[in-house]
Amino acid sequence: MENQTKTILVTGGAGFIGSHLVRLLVNKYPNYKIVNFDKLTYAGNLFNITDIENAPNYVFEKGDIVETEHLDKVFSKYDFDGVIHLAAESHVDRSIAHPTEFIVTNIVGTVNLLNAAKHAWKDNFEGKTFYHVSTDEVYGSLGDEGFFLEDTSYDPRSPYSASKASSDHLVRAYFHTYGLPVKISNCSNNYGPNQFPEKLLPLFIHNIKNNKALPVYGEGLNIRDWLWVKDHAVAIDNIYHNGVLGETYNIGGHNEWKNIDLIHKLCELMDQKLGREAGSSAGLITYVKDRAGHDMRYAIDATKIEKDLGWVPSIQFEEGLSLTIDWYLENEEWLDSVTSGDYQKYYDEQYNKREFV
Ligand code: NAD
Ligand code: DAU
């Protein structure tokens, strides 16, 4: 398979998961051409992929999936065998503050991309694949028991998850209506290097380092299922190459953590790594008003991808968390570059608006 020639469009390849995926594909498939199409929003940063920017099988194209002419241009410039679609607005809190941006990018952008692929492939889909990378949040919120399965009914609760659910539905609609060869995966919370520091782990690492408060939503009892980002990239590669067209695959780490337990674990490791007195980072924990519509628990049953495609997570969480902390502490330049300017202003404004309890 590595010797075949393919041209693959990856959208959102300058973001957190996309950058790990692009690196994997560029290094693993020297005969492929990997075209990274990204608008470079606040969350997209070419700093994430400087190590492969000069690789002969890699090209970056700046563009917006909402702008059909940008898509027409890139689809007429290259003859794509496949599309792996990650470009999205991805942060739940932002979707609560600015829902329309999520509708436009995640729904309209996805339809534009579906249309561009369908049009470019002239309804001749032999050997083509359109793969949508989605989230477990489409399934809604679990109680104490049970897991999300591929056939769990959709029940999104936030503007972000509703926009991703809608884009999943549209991808399936193009499969059933036009025969577009699609695949979808729904993954749990990713963690690791290069995640924008508005999400829980990089934000809290950044705040602990700078002795800033750690804003825990509600009582910190919500549960997330954490997966090492590079394991997600391996799963996407596997599904792209081996997954069955028209199918959905759930991806998760069998690694559920109550937020407050995870935060205490993080604080403990940060105290050790920063040489601070035990308990000093935990002293920064500050309970704030809960996120509106905060889903209580996510947990993935990943049996299908494990059994059908032989994918399993490669790394234990304690090791991954330690590697993650080390990466952020060693990459201050990256952190400074992404948190300077507009972002810091946005964060300070949002943070100052939070109600403390
Ligand atoms: P991210 O916010 O880090 O990156 C998103 C990327 O998309 C950025 O590079 C951004 O510049 C680009 N982008 C945004 N709008 C665009 C547009 N209109 N045109 C072109 N590019 C645009 O997101 P992430 O965390 O890497 O998530 C990637 C995908 O995976 C998303 O679709 C998300 O819904 C999904 N996902 C994320 C997680 C997670 O835990 N982070 C889990 C499951 C699924
Ligand atoms: O489940 C997959 C999803 O995981 C992805 O689809 C999303 O793109 C990704 O952002 C993530 O969504 P979450 O909302 O779960 O991630 P976040 O890091 O924002 O929050 C994780 C948990 O921590 C959640 O229960 C809210 C809580 N939290 C978050 C922040 C930013 C806090 O208590 N305080 C905070 O400041």
Looking at the structure, what is the overall shape?
globular
Helix-and-strand structural type: alpha/beta
Integer average pLDDT: 95
Instruction: Indicate the proportion of strand residues.
Output: 15-25%
CATH homologous superfamily caption of the domain at 7-192 and 227-256 and 296-318: NAD(P)-binding Rossmann-like Domain
Helical content (DSSP H or I, runs of 4+) = 40-55%
Q: What features would you highlight for this structure?
A:
357 residues; alpha/beta; Rossmann fold; 12 helices; 43% helix; binds nicotinamide-adenine-dinucleotide; binds 2'deoxy-thymidine-5'-diphospho-alpha-D-glucose
Explain how this protein is built:
- This protein has a domain of 239 residues: NAD(P)-binding Rossmann-like Domain (Rossmann fold).
- It is an alpha/beta fold and 357 residues long.
- The longest helix has 22 residues.
- The protein starts with 6 loop residues before the first strand and ends with a helix.
- The chain contains twelve helices and twelve strands.
- It binds nicotinamide-adenine-dinucleotide (NAD) and 2'deoxy-thymidine-5'-diphospho-alpha-D-glucose.
- 2'deoxy-thymidine-5'-diphospho-alpha-D-glucose binds next to α6 and β8.
Strands, helices and their partners?
Elements: E1 7-11, H1 16-28, E2 33-38, E3 58-62, H2 68-77, E4 82-85, H3 92-97, H4 99-120, E5 129-135, H5 159-178, E6 182-187, E7 189-191, H6 200-209, E8 214-217, E9 223-228, H7 229-242, E10 248-251, E11 256-258, H8 259-274, E12 285-288, H9 303-309, H10 317-330, H11 332-339, H12 342-353
Parallel strand pairs: 1-2, 1-4, 2-3, 4-5, 5-6, 6-10, 7-9, 8-12
Antiparallel strand pairs: 9-11
Bound molecules: nicotinamide-adenine-dinucleotide (NAD) and 2'deoxy-thymidine-5'-diphospho-alpha-D-glucose.
Nicotinamide-adenine-dinucleotide binds next to helix 1, helix 4, strand 5 and strand 7.
